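User: Before I run my own analysis I want an independent prediction to cross-check against. Here's the chain; please return only the structure tokens and, at the end, one sentence I can use as a sanity check.
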Amino acid sequence: MARATVPSRRSGRAAALLLGLAVASLLASRTPAKDPPAPPTGGNDVQDVTRLINEKLEAGYKANNITPAARCTDHEFIRRATLDIIGRIATPEEIEHFMKDPAEKRRALLIDRLLGKGSDAKENSKYTEEYARHWANVWSNWLLGRAGVFGRGKYHEQTETWLEDQFAQNRPYSLLVTDLLTAKGKNTENGAVNFVLANVGEAIPPAERAKFGQFDMVPVTSRTTRIFLGIQTQCNQCHDHPFDANLKQHHFWSINAYFRQVEREGTLPMTNRRDTAVPLALKENPNVNVDPVVYYEKRNGVVEEVKGAFFKGDRLEKGSKDRRILLASQLIDHDNFPKAYVNRMWAVFFGKGFVNPIDDFNEQNQIANPELLGELAQRFKHYGFDQKKFIRWVCNSNAYSLSCTVNKTNEKAEHDVLFSHMLMKAMSPEQLFESLMVATNAAANENKDEKKKSRDDWLSTLINNFGDDEGNEVNFNGTVVQALLMMNGQQINDAIMRKDGKGTVDQVLRKYPGANGRINALFLAALNRPTRGSKEMDDIQKRLPLLDLKTGRPRADKDAHDPYFDLFWALLNSNEFILNH
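Assistant: Structure tokens:
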């Protein structure tokens, strides 16, 4: 993958270094929802489920004459797992800790630590907080998108705060979803209400609200089935599904009826500025849309009437109370509920799901390894929709430890869904920010409020270049815009060039007297690995004016920091840093 080449405020020598470095360019019940069943006791679920994953994937390799990629290095693994589980690269101290663990256990021990299940209580608390913050951010973007009043600013933060609490408790996924669908009250007190509030759709004319409700509730209908069931019903708003005979137009509108008694108190601001985020409240009004009926127009102009029903479930009747509670119960009972979660999360860790796009289960969309998807979904449900268990299963599998380097048997794009090598993934804007803070040690130099402001400023600049208003992430392929943002960012340059004992480069120079030690330390801080032997080390030293070639001593005409600033800047702007591999 080629790097973008753009002018830079840094020196021409550094730009040449960026291009020449030998850094790798890598690649339902009809009653209110109940608590999930208590997870089974005894046995070893990690051992059992990872064995299942390994066996099913290995059968696929054999059937397709695939030789899987080699096992990734330990340095690649700690960077990958730390990024995926807590949303940032590892620190040199964490790498040192990891390498001291017994080789045969260190990957499993790392996964436990990152999930807050290690042997040190203080460490567990730290990682639990980071885990919760990372996944709250991921789910907020999925639920609310990145654009508009709810995609950024105060409302987005309210939802993130609520989700952080859910993930910190490791609340069962089924209950988390139930709360999102059934939430009521003020968003200043319960950030869960913002999922529905963000997706109410167009307002119904006041004269018709008693019959049809306050809003058409179209966006929340399609977003609910898409996110939680992996079923794209948005096109069913206007016509029957073109690829799935089981999805008709009336299915969309019969689900829509479950939301028609929702009302919003408060008026949305016109911008997402923090000071204009007025309080909003969500309530259920049983006195509107009393007959749970919705009218929709078919393509031929005929207007049809449909009564509320969840796919093939029982219909809503006049006077049915707590419609959204009924909806949540029926949704969680649906076969696709655990499958959609497994598929979505598998794609987070492997770069692709069993079904792609990840939210488009339909008759014509082939499932890769349907047996594995089905059995993982069953076990996820069986173990109480425990999200940390699922992550532990996936990250302990053989496939998650594979290198991203392909071979002749698995190099074609159609082989990707066999998961015989790790796919490279672009960091999200949030992962990129957090990783830069860790690499440059900037996070340690700011208080909580300063870091939050830095993060908000960073994201406001980068969001327009990542993702879209549907909450989808856009793959990064080394665009000029991205390279300019990275290389010319004042914040990054300032963090790199600190000489007060707090910046990474300055700390490295104080700690290591020789060039080799300094170079390896900077590689660990940025790329989570040392240089790849003497060849890479020699190549870098040739490109950096570290020594006077005649005397063998440090150059007297240059600040000792300068070449290391350039090296570190180049590492942070390499594809190897920007990509999760």
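Sanity check: Residues 12-27+427-580 form one domain.
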